[in-house]
Amino acid sequence: MNLVYSDSQGNVFDHPDFLALGRNAEMITEILDDELIPLPEGSTLVSLPFTRPVGIDAATGDMKLVEGDYHAVGALLPQGFTRLLLPGYVKSDKTKALPLFGYTAVVWKEDGFYVAARLTDNPYYWNPVHCDPTELEVEVKRLVAKYPENRLYAHLSNCALGYECLTASNTFLQRWEGAVPVSYSCNAGCFGCISEQPDESGFVAPQTRMNFKPKVEEITQIMLEHLRTPESIISFGQGCEGEPSTQAVIIIEAIKQVREQTKMGYININTNAGLTDHIRGIVDAGLDLMRVSTISALDDHYNAYYKPRAYTLKNVEKSLRYATDKGVITSINYLVFPGVTDREEEIEAMIEFVRRTGLKLIQLRNLNIDPESYLGIIPKARGELLGMKQMIEIFQEELPDVILGSYSHTPKFYTSDRTASMVL
């Protein structure tokens, strides 16, 4: 398998004399055949700025940098695929941070590009090729015109057309999981926040956070437009907002008003679940699904990344337990990173966390971050690195009643034949 690299203009090449390498945290490692799958449809190859590609010289067996003004290349995967390794590279300028994306090791084999990844969910619904831009533009214009006073539709139109957010696009296409952002504030200061970064962070947030508090009427209009089929999902908590439960009062009122008018579809919240009292109120109002974002079940790691304000991981656990006990289908949005999530102590802690909270689903999500910056803020490994592939296999063995996936699903998903639909 050949090393893949790019020149300064972004042209991508495979090196005929260098074998590809990957990274597991700081450790540069070989890539095994059973870790590779063909580059999935909807993926993007990107050049990694401020890096040098590193590979194995096939003639000598030595690890070497590619000489010249060249950069490492990574793949950005669509939802439904979990990366197993980072690209093999070294920083050419250690003061520079990579943009906030989830970079995956990519190689060239005899018949095309391959990536170090694993299929973990049906990728169909979150494949960008299934979002027709012409149809989307028509539907954006229609709904914005229908609700000219609704600031949320105006806000989401930029998310859909400008940022190409698929959840926002679904809101206008009125299908699958749609978005209803509500919060401009947050009770956490996530190191890798994609909607708000302090000037001194060195990162550029790829999205702009909403800057207004919506009215209940604006929220219910979007919810009622979207909840038109039995399989529809409308979700609070988007990448363009803070923590939705900080606006629990308006969420609770919106849910109540909507459920007085329709029982169709499912209401979901994507949350850090730190505000347990607020979560209880939202659950009691009629919540169906809850996905909780976490990066670890270890306090020191969790706190280093999320920088929680006036809550702890114990509050998160209480919120999940309460929702589960009330019949809400609960899952975690598990931000995974090769060389960290697959640490022995991380795996053990997460297994116990899942058992205590009664989760139905672990949504594996590739963490969008500059690797060096992330590794610089979290605790060092205390145990063995088992590898992402083995980590997934351990979860499957130790948590047989918990589904490994990549995104939220309706209740039907938990009783259907999922394996049959897991196709490329």
From TrEMBL:
Residues 181-351 form the Radical SAM core domain. It comes from Paenibacillus alba. This is Radical SAM protein. The lineage of its organism: Bacteria, Bacillati, Bacillota, Bacilli, Bacillales. The keyword Disulfide bond does not apply. InterPro entries: Aldolase_TIM, Organic_radical-activating, rSAM, rSAM_sf. Keywords: 4Fe-4S, Iron, Iron-sulfur, Metal-binding, S-adenosyl-L-methionine. Its cofactor is [4Fe-4S] cluster. Pfam families: Radical_SAM (PF04055).
